[in-house]
């Protein structure tokens, strides 16, 4: 049954409707070929305008989750029936990702410093900083039990932070840290590759394992580059899922 839901996210209304319809398809167990509610039914359920619903349906069609048959309605595609538990394309924090995998992670701060952009040329290039500008560089481990799960290096332009983070703020979510400064990351451009940890990092069996390196540049809603991250995910304990269309 399609139920009404309030929209309070920072996403655009059409994107929230898209997410709600996608959730409805999954929750209702709809299969390929099943009809979805009409525009009028969606407008009534969500209390939104018809143009917003049409834009949401257009987004679902672009993602190949529904198909329109003129004169008959809109129908679920095979792609929508696939449920990917942790799609690699989903933008989420490492804390959210590890929690979804069943871990209760703890954060160990290795270092936190202010540095000139010239000292981190890859980050400076990704963030569009000139050599003399300052950056905040945060190096951390995410652990659960006795296992190291993720090694992270997060770099942010110092100019967008209200203050230099200290104390408990260093152990929390970087996304929330940036959101508190008015620059919440909402999307990223990412690259994934197999890699070994940087020289001098860790000892023991984990040191010799291949890790999954996710390098990404994160943007705020207005397109400002707010975070450059290099996250090494331990390949034997962390995995990603994806669909191919």
CATH architecture of the largest domain: 3-Layer(aba) Sandwich
Structural class: alpha+beta
CATH fold node name of the largest domain: Chorismate lyase
Count every beta strand, where a strand is a DSSP E run of 2 or more residues.
Answer: 8
Q: What percent of residues are in strands?
A: 25-35%
Average residue-wise pLDDT: 86
Output the helix-strand order: HHHEEHHEHEEHEHEE
State the name of the first-level CATH class of the largest domain. Answer: Alpha Beta
Unreliable parts: none
Q: So what's the overall shape? A: globular
Helix content: 25-40%
Number of domains: 2
Task: Please explain how this structure is put together.
The protein has two domains: 69 residues, Arc Repressor Mutant, subunit A, CATH 1.10.10.10; 141 residues, 3-Layer(aba) Sandwich (Chorismate lyase). It is 27% helix and 29% strand. The protein has a six-stranded antiparallel sheet. The chain has a two-stranded antiparallel ribbon with strand order 1-2. Helix 1 packs across helix 3. The protein is globular.
